[in-house]
Design a protein that fits this description.
2 domains; Growth Hormone, Chain: A; disordered C terminus; 493 residues; mainly alpha; single chain
């Protein structure tokens, strides 16, 4: 244990500036992904739009996030292009935060959030790729820390926004009484699941008379300006790394020639770009079938688990205030915060657990835990107390799946495939698609389907993981054979 810790510490000291830079850009990612939810109703007032119109802001952000995740690897060919892209993306997030208070039409707001979503997707792919490239077989610990910073940013931004959110109707209209506006706005603000996408769960809030004509009195713009300032040091950190690597025009010297250790001793850039470039024929020739199944199964697992995170955070409030629980709006409103806090705590704990256990063991424990806790929540569906307990345990169990699956899959493929790009894109797709699917099922079958959908998805995910372990067993001899054929004979260059 002591030798292992010393080795990791030595690696970190060698790459500390790169590592802290990638961690900081993920903090920027977390800030952006969590700020839209609690502020969306004030933004509706600012843009004088209807609920149906404002949901397109969510859709534009999530759609472009998927696009950015898919094509983000194109900007990773060299360290210079990666850092310039990260600098542009993090600076774009600060600029978007700054201009959102000036967007007084829903189309302008949708365009601004689309730009932010594109920047988030690019950050997601490049930071994961670069960290895996940097640490390779030791990347599990650092990936856990990387994804902890998403949770940290997601916890900070709602705290900043809360003092500036309107307690009563933020559009003054002579046709709406103060008492009704206050209670209705409070309920809608908590029901983030109803605002997850166009047409999803809008039936639950269509009877609330939210006016679009009148004087907007919201002060939410101050929250976005504060967040722009909080995020501003992140592009500065990226710029400092670029200066240190002599990648800026103002540098007096030419770019440093990084030795192979600084980019990973066995890493090759083959295939690590966009999803579509991974499908080029020259990158696929000579690959055994197990190579493709590993990508498909790993992507499918993250499609489901990140989808579970997305729809659970989106609909747990709606489930809690519906029969049979009928929880109070104030108590139910804490469930989403408990869930994200437990995810952040779980990723923090897994930084240490990754020292002690392999990624496959942590994955097995996490997926079994997700199934068990959802079984208990389904059996005790009438208990409000256990819903809080189950929400906390579910967040702890599912928190480490993404970084562990990324480290595990890249290790199977010996860091030569397109695993990172495929997994990041699959996770982004699942978070958007599964939330919409579950929302439609809840719409047609009732709120009880919320827990049932999660349990079914968890069993499917566990089955896919067992299949992945079998494919790994089949793939190992193939990988050894490929490595032997690629090793040059004595006397060959």
């Amino acid at each position: 244990m002591k030798l292992f810790d010393d080795r990791l510490w030595t690696l970190f000291k060698r790459h500390w500036q790169h590592t802290l830079t990638y961690w900081s850009v993920f903090f920027s990612f977390g800030l952006c992904i969590a700020l839209l939810g609690p502020t969306i109703l004030d933004l509706r007032c600012q843009t004088h739009s209807t609920l149906q119109q404002i949901t397109w802001v969510f859709f534009s952000q999530q759609s472009l996030l998927l696009v950015g995740s898919t094509f983000g690897g194109l900007f990773k060919k060299t360290l210079q292009s990666s850092l310039w892209t990260l600098f542009s993306s993090t600076l774009a997030i600060s600029l978007v935060f700054a201009i959102i208070p000036l967007c007084h039409h829903v189309i302008m707001l949708s365009v601004a959030m689309a730009i932010a979503g594109l920047a988030m997707g690019v950050i997601d792919t490049i930071a994961n790729l670069r960290l895996v490239q940097l640490y390779q077989k030791d990347s599990a610990v650092f990936l856990q820390a990387l994804h902890f910073f998403i949770g940290l940013g997601a916890l900070v931004s709602p705290l900043v926004a809360d003092p500036f959110l309107s307690e009563e109707n933020c559009i003054l209209s002579s046709n709406w009484t103060t008492n009704s506006s206050s209670s209705d706005l409070h309920h809608l603000r908590r029901a983030r699941g109803g605002l997850a996408g166009p047409g999803v769960m809008l039936h639950n809030m269509s009877h609330y008379p939210l006016h679009t004509e009148g004087v907007a009195t919201t002060e939410v713009g101050y929250a976005f300006w504060i967040m722009a300032l909080i995020n501003l040091p992140v592009p500065v950190v990226v710029l400092a790394l670029m200066y240190n690597e002599r990648l800026l025009p103002c540098s007096n010297s030419s770019p440093r020639l990084l030795d192979r250790d600084s980019e990973g001793p066995a890493y090759t850039d083959q295939g690590h770009s966009s999803v579509f470039s991974c499908c080029r024929l020259r990158n696929l020739q000579g690959r055994p079938p197990s190579f493709f199944f590993i990508h498909i199964l790993g992507g499918a697992i993250l499609f489901i688990t990140d989808g579970i995170i997305g729809y659970y955070a989106g609909f747990v409030y709606t489930y809690a205030v519906s029969p049979p629980l009928l929880m109070g709006h104030k108590a139910a409103g804490y469930l989403d915060s408990v869930f994200w806090a437990s995810i952040t705590a779980g990723r923090l704990a897994c930084i240490y657990l990754s020292y002690r256990y392999t990624a496959v063991r942590l994955l097995a424990f996490s997926l079994v835990g997700v199934i068990l806790v959802q079984c208990m929540m389904l059996l005790l569906y009438y208990s409000s107390v256990f819903l809080f307990i189950g929400t906390c345990v579910l967040g702890l169990c599912i928190s480490s799946v993404f970084p562990c699956m990324l480290a595990f899959t890249e290790d199977i493929l010996n860091y030569k495939g397109c695993a990172t790009t495929v997994l990041v894109t699959s996770a982004s797709t699942g978070e958007m698609v599964l939330e919409m699917i579950v929302g439609s099922v809840i719409h047609s079958r009732g709120s009880y389907a919320f827990l049932l959908c999660g349990l079914i998805a968890s069993f499917i995910c566990c089955g896919l993981f067992l299949l992945l372990l079998y494919v790994q067993h089949v793939h190992s001899p193939c990988q050894s054979g490929i490595a032997m054929t690629e090793t040059p004979k004595p006397g060959q260059p």
